[in-house]
Amino acid sequence: MQAGAEVVPVDSAMAAAATSPKPEPLAYDVHLFEAFPAVCAKGKNGVQTCQAMSLFLQDRANFEMLYSKQLGKIQQSPKSEDWAKQVASVWAAVHKAMASISAEHVDFASKHTTSIVAGIKACTLQQDTQIQRLTSEGLKIKSRYQDYATKANKTKERYDKKCADALELLASLNRKPDGDKSSDIFTKVWDSTKHLAFTSQDRQRTKIAAAMDDIVAAEAAYTRAVEALASQRTTYERSLKDNLRAFEVTEEQRIEYIKDLLLRTEKARLGTLKKIEAVIADMQAAIQSIDVLDDIEEGLVQGLGLQSPELTAETAWLLDPESTRLADLVTGVQSMSDQGVICTHAMLNTLVEYISAEETFVQALDKLSSIHGPTPNEKIETGLFASSNPVVADEGATLSAAWTAVVAQLQRVAYLHREFGSLLAEPVLLSLGTMKNEYDETKTALDADLGRLYGTILAERQAHWRLLTRLETKRKELEANQTTQTVNVDKEDMLHHLGLADSPSERERKLGWKVDQLRDEITDLSAQVDASAAALLDKADTFREELQRVLSGYTKNEKYRLDVKKSSLRSLVKAHDHLVLGLKHASQAIVTDVDQLSATADIQEFIQHVVDASPPTTEGPSLVPQLSTSPLLLEQLRRHTSTAKPKLVATPSNSNLARTIDETEDSNASDADAILDKKDELKDDKDSLLFAMGSAEFQRVFNLPASEQVVASFSCALYLNNFPCQGRLYLSQTHLCFTGWRDAFVVLPLTEITHMERKNTAIVVPNALELTTATQGRFFFASFLYRDECMQSVGQLRQIQQQMQAILTPSDDGTPDDDDSTASNSEGSETQVSLDIAEQETILSQDYDVVMDEVLSLPLAYVNKALWGPAAYLDALLKATGETNVSVGEWSPGPVQYTAFKRQETFQKVRTVTYTHNKKYMVGPSAIPTSQEQRLSFEDGVGLVVSVTATVADAPYHDYFRAESRWLFTPQPNGDTRLRTGVRLFWVKSTWLKKQIEGATASESKETMKLWAVKAMEAYKKTTATTTAKATPPTKAPSAVVPPVAAEVPKTTPPVATKMVLPEGRLVWGLALLAYLLVLLSLWRLGSLHQRSVALQEEQVALLRAMLQSVSDGQLRDVLQHVLPPH
């Protein structure tokens, strides 16, 4: 290993950073390099936090919905009308306000569920997937490097053991014999072996030579292992730093998204409370209009006529048996009193149900607080899923403070609702209950008094009425008898005058007696009637006074009821006002607290905590071979190598043992090393894809010159015959290269790439890229982790290559005449900007995602003059699509310079367009203010380019990006115009919703651009039809000029026309039939080819599975199982 390849350990870098005068901010990729388990625990705790918050927000939304349903049931309960109009109107306003409050809670809970809860669930799923992927990648990286380190340690141990054994052997051989008998016996036994084939010195040399050979082999293996470890160290550090940086970005985005969700929740709650506050203000205004005396005056006094003269001074109506005034008065008073009782019962039942709803809501909030809030003297554990239920882990001071504020706000809300229920129970419900009891008692007593008085008056009136009836009957009877008597007297006088009458008969005498008797009875009855009338007159004033007393009692009782009801309604409104003010203060406080949440501060705190809590890191394996320095061993190695055959002197890098190696031994060792390296390569085949090769190896593998250096590399898979070959894509200054499984090998010059397009795998996974080349066809790469970064890198390298070619390629047509003409053109028109269609096509294909490529049947001049020139067309189009507040400005002449992404361009003119975009989205507002800045360049006969920059406001993530779109119109030889459009978002900030926002923007932009094209064609057709109608003069012979429409064949041709087919028509029909048969044949061949392709793929899968069964290495088998499709 060379000295220049030495890598500075991370601990040394951290120590140098700590001693610098201006330390850099703490970062994952530096300070957590040796604490990957803590990073994994942090990521999993983040997932648990998202799950806990998702459950919390879901439960909160469910409780809000339950509370609103209970309020809705109360509002839908049967209502009773009060005879007091003002009180009745206020009670109706209270019911209306309760309905409005219930509707606001329902709306908040629904939006909360569809927007906030759905967002946190999506964040949880995304976070879980991202953390699992990053953890898996990090573990693979560490496992790969640990394998290299373990191999280096094992070879070091083997080398040290061989050196120790050799030293022990040399020490035992160099030990001097003692002078005792045992040594003599040993010497004699040793000397007695001289007659054998080998002498003792030969055996000693053989042992030493074998030991030296072992040391040389162990040293070579140890040196190779250390060199391999050193070569992988830089790649390992870079890969792990990238992984840790991805962890940091993921955690920061998660915390920022949680902050955004909590803020949006409380802001939506504040909006709901403001609406409820307006409803309560209406209730307060209605209560201020209540005047109990006016209700009494209008309802009782005027309605029943209690202040009328007949009730205050007259008494005749009391004695008149035919008068219904008394009955109506009694019925009216009792009806109003009964209505008051019913209204009081209804109000009491409403308040009882209201209090029950508040108690249920408070119990739900207390339960939610006990689940998600820590109990006193309890500390939340930060281990991996330490709790059986998901809880918010302690991930930092600001997040903990924000979550504590959220739980405290929940407890505050429960306290406010509990206090609201108490206010309803004590001042309101208690006063109403007391009033109800007293009102019922008073009403019962007044009803009894009124009934008794009414019965007495009726009895007196009926008795007097009976005497009058008898008197009238007697008078009628007396009158009848007197008439009969008069008639009889006349008859008797006539008969007596004629001399025919006798003396008065007995009948006449009885009749006279009866008349006298009737007169006496009438006289007695008249006396009795006069006495009864006098008695009634004497009692009339008493009856009237008693009736006034009872009616006054009714009036006082109703006034008491209305006063208490008014006071209760005022207390109810005050309690509502107190509740809403408390909830507003709580929400404003939580907005302030959550706004203090800082993802950066929490991440810095976590890094500092891990660094402080981590034990001192032990040094890893050395990146320089630590060879033996024993003089005895070095001398013996020198002797061993000097007695060998033909010699080659070798001095390996970082070795302090200069030795000579036999050529034969070196070749054998090289062969052995090659075999071991091949085994290691087969063993670590799957892990090698995680590490990019160096520039030297890159040049050797892809046979590129030394000037080609690796700029970037990306892990991906190349699809060959619909089979993904996992590997790595490398980018150099001028080439794109790929190597992977199944001998997948690509070397592609960047200048041959003509088009790049983002693709999806499995329809929805945005991790693929398709490259179209000029000579090698198309390449489909998938399984990207950083697809957009790869595409951006390729685009930048292609742009650099094109600029270099433009600089190095001399211009052949730059004559002085051309320069003079160009100068004269620029002097004649200052805003004239020439268009280079090739450059415009390059900008559109490289900087934008092409969404539409169509040919429009209209001239280019019409597009410029009628569609983009005036503001009327765009104004009408925007209004037709439902946009409001449309304002299309006038064009301002340029030149105007603008840089959409990285290329600075010059346009001829610019204008501003503003409107309100109206569309129902699942998340966010339905009306979005939008502003566009449109820049235009036009050259007749060459093309028209429109660059549009769109920005929005009052929408989620509106400050994260701006939308750049481009319209390129080029003329066609037949007079038509080709339209190509592209869209791309310029991101100012990063978010995990980037893919979703880009997909929605692309689909909506495509629909808008297609609609523009359709409307443009319709407008051109109308203009053409109008122009043709005006230009065609009236003629008497219409057959002289046939309009183009006449050439159209009717859709329904009569059957007779088929008999008059010309020979040319038969030929056309024959060709059409032949074409139809060819299409059927092609379809049949495609079907057979598809079946053969499926069969080949099944055979490939079977072969790969057979290879999988024959492979003994478990790690390689796992990799192939990931590649093979399931059964």
TrEMBL record:
Spans annotated as Disordered: 809-833
> Which keywords does this Swiss-Prot/TrEMBL entry list?
Cytoplasm, Membrane, Phosphoprotein, Transmembrane, Transmembrane helix
The residues that cross the membrane are 1067-1086
Q: Where is the composition biased (Polar residues)?
A: 823-833
- Identify the residues that the record assigns to the VASt domain, covering every copy: 847-1024
**Known InterPro entries for this protein?**
AH/BAR_dom_sf, FCH_dom, GRAM, PH-like_dom_sf, VASt
Topology relative to the lipid bilayer, per the entry, is: Single-pass membrane protein
Task: Give any Gene Ontology cellular component.
Answer: organelle
Q: Where in the cell is it found?
A: Cytoplasm; Membrane
Official protein name in the record: VASt domain-containing protein
Q: Which organism is it from?
A: Saprolegnia diclina (strain VS20)
Source taxonomy: Eukaryota, Sar, Stramenopiles, Oomycota, Saprolegniomycetes
